[in-house]
Amino acid sequence: MEELIATVQASTAIAVGLIFAFAALGTGIGFGLLGGKFLEGAARQPEMAGMLQVRMFIVAGLLDALSIIGVAFAALLMFGNPLLAAIGS
User: Fold this and answer.
1) pLDDT of res. 89
2) Active site residue ranges
3) How far from 14 is each of 38, 54, 63, 78, 87, CA to CA, in Å?
């Protein structure tokens, strides 16, 4: 029984690390693409830079929200692991 609990905790630690890594990687790639496209649009039509900037910040907020949801899910797995309750410890 103790080996099963240790296996679940080890797998959970690996999953939490992967969630953190992919959330950071996805957000970094998203911000890079977003910033690049904003600069392209502002360079192409400078008079629309203000409107593009507002939309860029809205999308940036959505990008951050996705990574925060991933971090919250990882925190749930880390501190209140529902998989351990399924074992019946």
Assistant:
1) 53
2) 64
3) 36, 38, 24, 10, 19
